C-alpha cells in the first residue's frame, strides 16, 4: 500500500485529489496539507511514501518545502508502518505548463516527478505509482528546461575532479547514460545484454553513490557532471 500526503492551498483541489487517490485500492491518503510549512510538519509526522504538491504551493517557499521534505535535517520518526530504511518521502509536483523554471528548481531541490496540473486522473494515479517506485515522471517542457539550464552552466564548468563520476564503475556509467537518455530498465537490459534485475541493482547503487533518491535526480547528475552532454 502506497501512502500519500496531498498538499494544495485550495480546498476544492485538496478534496478532489484526496477522493481520486483514496479510491484506488493500492493508494492510501494519510493526510492533507494547505501549505509548504504544514506539509513539512505532516510529512515528518506521517512518513508518507509520496507527497503530491499542487501548483498553488509553487512559490519560493514551495521549493524550500520540497528540499526539507526530501532531505530532512533530522531522521524521520520510524513507526512500525514506515518504509524499510526510513527513506524520506518522494515528491510529485503538479505544475502549470508555463512554470518550467519552477519545476527545474523543484527538481534540484529533490522532487521526483512533475505532472501538468491539467493531467487526467489516470495520468495522476499512474504518476503517483511511478514516483513511489523511485522512477521519474516529467514532461517534455521540463526536460527542455533542464537541458537548457545545464547547457548554460556547462561553459562555466570545468572537468575538475570531484564531479562524482569517479565514484561510478564503467558499467554504472553505461547504465546512467542510458537512464539519462530516457531508457526504461527493460530497454537498458536489452541494450547492455544484462538482466532487468541487474539494471535495477545498478540504478540503486548509482542513486546511493550520488546521494539521489529518484531517477530524475540521477538524470540531473548525468548532465551536470558532464557524463551526458545536451545536444546543441
Structure explained in plain terms:
Helix 3 packs parallel to helix 4, helix 4 (100-109) crosses helix 6 (140-153) and helix 8 (185-192) crosses helix 9. Strands 2-1-3-4-5 form a five-stranded parallel beta sheet, with helices on both faces. The protein is an alpha/beta fold. It folds into two domains: 2-146, Response regulator (Rossmann fold, 3-Layer(aba) Sandwich); 160-224, Winged helix-like DNA-binding domain superfamily/Winged helix DNA-binding domain (Arc Repressor Mutant, subunit A, Orthogonal Bundle). It is 49% helix and 12% strand. The longest helix has 15 residues, at 196-210. Helix 3 links the parallel strand 3 and strand 4 (90-95). The chain has ten helices and five strands; from the N terminus they run βαβαβαβαβαααααα.
Alpha-beta classification: alpha/beta
CATH homologous superfamily grouping of the largest domain:
Response regulator
Question: What is the mean predicted local confidence, pLDDT?
Answer: 80
Distance between the termini: 43 Å
Strand content: 5-15%
State the CATH topology of the largest domain.
Rossmann fold
Whole-angstrom Rg: 17 Å
Major β-sheet profile: 5 strands, parallel
CATH architecture of the largest domain: 3-Layer(aba) Sandwich
In DSSP terms, counting alpha (H) and pi (I) runs of 4 or more, how many helices? Answer: 10
User: How many strand segments?
Assistant: 5
Lateral arrangement of strands in the main beta sheet:
2-1-3-4-5
What spatial form do the alpha-carbon principal axes imply? globular
Question: Which blocks of ≥5 consecutive residues have pLDDT under 50?
Answer: 75-85, 156-161
Residues in helix, %: 40-55%
Number of domains: 2
Under CATH at level 1, the class of the largest domain stands as Alpha Beta
SSE order, one letter for each helix or strand: EHEHEHEHEHHHHHH
Amino acid at each position: 500500500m502506497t501512502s500519500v500526503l496531498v498538499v494544495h492551498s485550495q480546498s476544492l483541489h485538496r478534496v478532489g485529489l484526496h477522493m481520486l487517490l483514496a479510491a484506488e485500492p493500492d493508494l492510501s491518503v494519510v493526510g492533507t496539507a494547505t501549505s509548504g510549512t504544514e506539509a513539512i510538519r505532516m510529512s515528518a509526522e506521517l512518513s508518507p511514501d509520496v507527497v503530491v504538491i499542487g501548483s498553488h504551493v509553487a512559490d519560493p517557499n514551495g521549493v524550500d518545502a520540497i528540499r526539507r521534505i526530501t532531505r530532512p535535517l533530522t531522521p524521520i520518526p520510524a513507526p512500525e508502518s514506515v518504509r524499510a530504511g526510513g527513506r524520506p518521502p518522494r515528491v510529485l509536483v503538479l505544475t502549470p505548463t508555463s512554470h518550467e523554471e519552477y519545476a527545474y528548481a523543484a527538481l534540484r531541490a529533490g522532487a521526483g516527478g512533475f505532472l501538468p496540473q491539467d493531467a487526467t486522473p489516470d495520468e495522476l494515479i499512474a504518476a503517483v505509482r511511478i514516483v513511489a517506485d523511485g522512477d521519474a515522471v516529467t514532461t517534455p517542457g521540463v526536460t527542455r528546461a533542464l537541458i537548457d539550464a545545464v547547457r548554460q552552466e556547462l561553459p562555466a564548468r570545468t572537468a575538475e575532479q570531484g564531479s562524482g563520476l569517479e565514484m561510478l564503475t564503467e558499467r554504472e556509467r553505461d547504465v546512467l547514460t542510458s537512464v539519462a537518455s530516457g531508457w526504461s530498465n527493460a530497454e537498458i537490459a536489452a541494450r547492455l545484454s544484462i538482466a532487468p534485475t541487474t539494471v535495477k541493482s545498478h540504478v540503486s547503487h548509482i542513486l546511493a553513490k550520488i546521494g539521489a533518491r529518484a531517477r530524475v535526480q540521477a538524470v540531473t547528475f548525468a548532465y551536470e557532471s558532464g557524463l551526458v552532454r545536451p545536444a546543441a
